[in-house]
Amino acid sequence: MTTIAIEDLVFDYPDGTRAIDGLDLSIAAGERVAIVGQNGSGKSTLIRHLNGLLRPTVGRVLIDGQDIASQRVAHLAAVVGLAFQDPDRQIFAGRVDAEVAFGPRNLGLRDGALEAAVSDALDVVGLDGVRAAKPYDLGYSRRKLLGLASILAMGTPVVVLDEPTTGQDARGIDRVRSIVRSISTDRTVIAVSHDMDFVAAEFGRIVVMRSGRIILDGTPADVFAADSWQTLATTFLEPPRAAVAGVEAGVGATPTPEALATALRAAGRGASDTDATDGAVRT
Amino acid sequence: MTLELASVSYRYAGYARPALRDVSLRVDDGEIVGIVGANEAGKTTLCLVASGLAPASIGGRLLSGSVVADGQDLARIPVHGLAERVAIGFQDPATQLSGATGSVIEEVALGPLNLGMPGREALERAHEALDALNIGDLAERDPLRLSGGQGQLVVIAALLAMRPRHLVLDEPTAQLDPHGTRLVADALRRLAAVGTALLIAEHKTDLLDELCGRIAVLDGGALVGDGSAASVLEDPRLVDRGVAPPSRVTIRRAIEAAGAAP
Prior knowledge:
The complex is a heterodimer of chains A (283) and B (262).
Chain A: E1 4-12, E2 18-27, E3 32-37, H1 43-48, E4 58-63, E5 66-67, H2 73-76, E6 80-83, H3 96-106, H4 111-125, H5 140-152, E7 158-162, H6 170-182, E8 188-192, H7 196-202, E9 205-210, E10 213-218, H8 220-223, H9 229-234, H10 241-248, H11 257-266
Parallel strand pairs in A: 3-8, 3-9, 6-7, 7-8
Antiparallel strand pairs in A: 1-2, 1-4, 4-5, 9-10
Helix pairs in contact in A: 3-4, 3-5, 4-5, 10-11
Chain B: E1 3-10, E2 20-27, E3 32-36, H1 43-50, E4 63-69, E5 72-73, H2 79-82, E6 86-89, H3 93-96, H4 104-114, H5 119-132, H6 148-161, E7 166-170, H7 178-193, E8 197-201, H8 205-211, E9 214-219, E10 222-228, H9 229-234, H10 247-257
Parallel strand pairs in B: 3-8, 3-9, 6-7, 7-8
Antiparallel strand pairs in B: 1-2, 1-4, 4-5, 9-10
Helix pairs in contact in B: 4-5, 4-6, 5-6, 6-7
């Protein structure tokens, strides 16, 4: 069980660009946290601090109460697994199963335990049928799932996913959703995403960033509530369409289609009363 | 400015199974046609073939059928002549950037310069293209040190600067936030308004819903649907083909399934 605390973090890139501008964030063990915001708002920069790929210009990152400034990336890799946005920056092995085995082997797993970690991860991402394939014979979306499997197999207490649904088709997005749900609840999951439907459905907490700072932090129902829309708009984010439809129908900003349907039913709006029409959910 | 694929089949060298099977599709001037389909349904291959970049033969015939832009068969045009006829935006911006320029503005001006345009005019066009996507502040940045989303916008700006008559885009907004996606949509609409024929492969059906008049559906390399955007996106079979309907359709179905009414 691992806790994360980021204190007064500032990060400047070498060219002087300030990417993180005084940010505090605490994440409890087992939390499901989505980080959203415009391109360039500092999301990817922030998560690269969690495993030491970037080091703070000012401020501290604490894992289980320990400042990680003096900890090596190799040590942090056992605690925080980071799946890159672009899988091709991550993949290097000649076979799918060898790619997935690399991380857990480095963490000391051998023989049966290693094999089990690899098999479980490939099974969860649906690549068990292509264990012997060359990673670059797989299409982009399956390489992306391979990148996820390589991180899952390490069994790190913290899993960080950078844009996991990018480039996935409908089945792929369903797969990524089920992967997130399958991660054991004692592991923390942090994802950066532009996909509001995905974050609203799978994450209990949403952190909204703008210009290197946090401007909203709460449950999907809070962050996508009507009185947050103006704040979201300042960073050009829009609530999920289900939330907009919920407000139009007078049942509040329901973040997912399922929540909207449930709210409508609870409000006593049975299908027998009126026909569901496009009109009321036009967005 | 029409782009027409007639009975096009394509197989990659070394593979027996075709990636495209007997695809016929026409994009008229000013039209924006969307392509949807699951991953590995043939969308990227269709983009490469429609832009004339997929080699017609390597140790045997790979391409059958014809791809014709403004009456000219692309197979008869040398590769260096393709750029001024059909522009293409690749899925991964990193593979599109030239790597030969030190700043974004040079990168965006490169296309017009390569078509023989005088430097001053090419630079003007490049600035115009950056402004159209609201990324004028990236002009002096190193193109190889941009975020995924910024890189994608720069690539699209570079295509806009070419003012192509035909434009093929392979998932042009995959890495963009909603705001960037909207800017790209507006820019593409303006391009269509001046007569460019656009073919766009995308997973984001919300985007295609508002952008396209027509949408074609690929499944296993074959065209299994081609019709008005509304009729294709409402088709219940879309989900079975691995394509998520736009959220307005998903929301309506969730409400109907719950037996509720708005």
